[in-house]
Specification:
Layout (H helix, E strand, L loop, with lengths): L1 E5 L3 H11 L6 E2 L6 H11 L3 E5 L7 H8 L7 E6 L4 H7 L4 E4 L4 H18 L9 E5 L2 E5 L4 E7 L2 E6 L2 E5 L3 H7 L5 E5 L2 E4 L3 E6 L5 E5 L6 E4 L4 H9 L1
Parallel strand pairs: 1-2, 1-3, 3-4, 4-5
Antiparallel strand pairs: 6-7, 8-9, 8-12, 9-10, 11-12, 13-14, 14-15
Helix pairs in contact: 2-3
GO molecular function: DNA binding; phosphorelay response regulator activity
Keywords: Phosphoprotein
Pfam families: LytTR, Response_reg
Length: 238
């Protein structure tokens, strides 16, 4: 996902750049320092998602967003501001979301999830895959998506847990999530992808977070982040 930051304050710009580099599917374009610079860079780099500061010199964020709405397709906009009252005007411009400064990592995760979902809606749906090929030594093992319990990120590796055991994959978590689209998986946390068909129970934890307990897997608890909780609960009610 091609992402651009538009922010005139250096510290805020660097903070957001640092947070975004932690997301494996984010491809950062050069940043802009004002709306005028944004309009020039947008034509060159064609970002899919723009984090746009509202209060900037020259062309402000609101005016820049109005002009960007004429692009084909228009980029998704997440307004960034230190003032919550700007949110009303932001959503009046059909912004995807808004973030308050200083930036909260959980809210940033939520904004990125919204962007991913919106971009998936723009893309013609693909037929769900029937098999996933996973490496085991020098062999390739065929695993049915419906037999995968969950996947987790361990340091820089993604590990898939299924009825045939535990497999490491070279896929990133986002690439795995994309491959499994069309199957009942939900991203419960930035480091966990869960097959909701195996969810047995969900227990409240703390500060709006939860733990998922899986059928037949005693002692394993899958975290649900505050940002992902709403989507997880909605998926479980379907």
């Amino acid at each position: 996902m091609k992402v651009m930051i538009v922010e005139d304050e250096r510290l805020s710009r660097e903070e957001l750049e640092h947070l975004l580099t932690q997301f494996e599917d984010v491809d950062l374009c050069p940043s802009a320092r004002n709306g005028k610079e944004l309009l020039r860079l947008q034509k060159e780099y064609q970002p899919e998602l723009i984090f746009l500061d509202i209060e900037m010199p020259e062309t402000n964020g609101v005016e820049a967003a109005r002009q960007l709405a004429e692009a084909t397709p228009p980029p998704l906009i997440v307004f960034t501001t230190a003032y919550e009252q700007y949110a009303v005007e932001a959503f009046g411009l059909c912004a995807l979301d808004y973030l308050l400064k200083p930036f909260d990592e959980e809210r940033l995760f939520e904004s990125l999830e919204r962007a991913r979902q919106r971009l998936r809606e723009r893309t013609p749906p693909k037929a769900p895959i029937s098999n996933l090929l996973l490496e085991e030594g020098d062999r390739l093992v065929v695993v049915k998506p419906e037999r995968i319990y969950f996947a987790e990120k361990e340091e820089r590796r993604v590990v898939i847990h299924c009825d045939r055991g535990r497999f490491e994959t070279r896929l990133t978590m986002q690439e795995l999530q994309d491959k499994l689209s069309g199957h009942p998986f939900v991203r419960s946390h930035r480091s966990f992808l869960v097959n909701i068909d195996y969810v047995d129970e969900i227990e409240p934890w703390q500060n709006g977070t939860y733990n998922i307990l899986l059928k037949g897997l005693d002692g394993i608890k899958i975290p649900v982040s505050r940002a992902a909780a709403k989507e997880v609960l909605q998926r479980l009610e379907r």
